Amino acid sequence: MQYQNPILSGFHPDPSICRVGKDFYLVTSSFEYFPGIPIFHSRDLVHWEQIGHCLTRNSQVHLVTGAPNCLNIYAPTIRYHEGTFYVVVTNVTGDNHGNFIVTATDPAGEWSEPIPLPFAGIDPSLFFDDDGKVYYLGTDGGIYLSQLDIATGEAIGETHALWQGTANNPEGPHLYKINGMYYLLLAQGGTELCHMAVLARSKSILGPYEPCPHNPILTNIGKNLPIKAAGHADLVDDADGNWWAVCLGNRPLAYPFRHNLGRETMLVPARLENGWFYLGEDRAVLPEFTVEHALAEEIPAGYAACSAVTDDFRGDSLQLMWNYIYNPVEGLIQQTASGLQMHGNEVSLWEDAPKAWLGRRQEHFCCTVEADLHFIPQQEGEEAGLTVYMNPAHHYEIARTMRDGRDCVILRRRIGGLCAVEQVLPYSDETMTLRLECDRDRYRFSFRTADGTVQPVGSGETQYLTTEAGGCFTGNYIALYASGNGKPMTTTATFTRFSYQPEAE
Question: Which residue ranges make up each domain of the chain?
């Protein structure tokens, strides 16, 4: 079997995985985006379909403003036990801040209200031992463990320190019991270029834990590979007894290393040999692996990580790819028979607050995006358009707006404290198609008029919408938006079509 990494491209960090029979389920971090914690299903570990989100209701989570791309929903872990799926996660801020569990019997369906947990720190995990006891693992300076009442969320007994790892920043712990031995897997080195996975084992769940002699068991540090910052792994076995690991990594655009797609989900083969795990090829995550064993499900020829997506917004609900920033505000976005209607509030794109904004992850370096817009601005400053968005301080957009009393199309670029409208073109037709062409170097904006004429507007460099420039944990989104820029809009903007087409790289 041959496959390519990433298996989930674009912003899909901190993967966690479990297996039920021949079915695999995977979750990733979602930070300030709503719905939270996307969940995916696969039969072969390579092809993944999003089947839902774990956090879909305001009652489940409050996402706070003020610290974009750095807080809110961190590093979930998914486990299955006796007919129930459990996801444990950290909300770093908010009314319901801290660690909590949500459950479901159908992972594609509604998940429960949160069960709050009395534990500090981040990156929680659950372990169901074969004696019926359930344990919570957390990160708070080091890795610790506590027995847990899984029904109530209450701690049972004392908290025990387990292991500090072998380097700085121990986090993301996962515990497994194999052949009577407890294996503790965790991430270290921070989430940048020095990220790694390390392993220890013990005959007792409380330790002491013996470090693996070939730690780190997974790292791309110092290797001439297109994938960097590999770490935060989770192990799973398939129905045939073969071991695998999912982990995160990023793919820099160029040297010096800068990445704009965010941290992505990778898959590496694993093996248990002489009581220790060996991951990847010489401990590295490769862009392509060939393994002798394959799952029962055949991988279709010509598989691509993501196919083209078109949305006319005519369904009963939004497609699973769409996210809001923070919890949605009623009345700003409506899916109607005529399309997606946006009633922009006073919040501008560069303000850190809920806004009329709906985005999907940029999952490919090279792609073409189009959006059909019906909108004629009626007051100064109100606008609707298409944005490549990293955070409030780093984004580019093409927009229809009223500027100095004129109906026009603009290109705006915001890079930190610098913000400039770099193009202003007159426009008067009610309808237009906004167009974005992405490659590894630039984002190129244009629009097509009602008579089919294509008008270039300008471009922006990809390097300024990267984690290294913008200082964030997430990747870029491509989003539809509307704003009154200081006051509520008087005019409704309607998007009738959105198209995302990956291109060959």
Answer: 2-290, 309-502
The string of DSSP letters for 262-306 reads -SEEEEEEEEEETTEEEETBTTB--SEEE-S---SSPPPTT--SS
Q: Is 441 a catalytic residue?
A: no
Mean pLDDT score, 211-228: 96
Cα separation values, 302 from 2, 47, 452, 500, Å: 12, 12, 33, 19
CB 372 within 8 A of CB 384: no
Mean pLDDT of the chain: 94
Catalytic residue among 44, 171, 234, 264: 171
Q: What is the pLDDT of residue 254?
A: 87
Fold for 2-290, please state it.
Answer: Tachylectin-2; Chain A (2.115.10)
Q: Of 274, 162, 173, 178, nearest to 231 (Cα)? A: 173
pTM of the model: 0.96
Q: Can you list the alpha helix ranges (DSSP code H) found in 298-398?
A: none
CATH topology of domain 309-502: Jelly Rolls (2.60.120)
> φ and ψ at 468, to 5 degrees?
-70, -30
Say whether 171 is catalytic: yes
Residue in 241, 153, 185 with CA at minimum distance from that of residue 15: 185
Say which DSSP state 60 is in: T
pLDDT digits (tens, 9 = 90+) for 366-405: 999 999 999 999 999 999 999 999 999 999 999 999 999 9
Q: For the segment 10-26, what is each residue's pLDDT rounded down to a tens digit?
A: 999 999 999 999 999 99
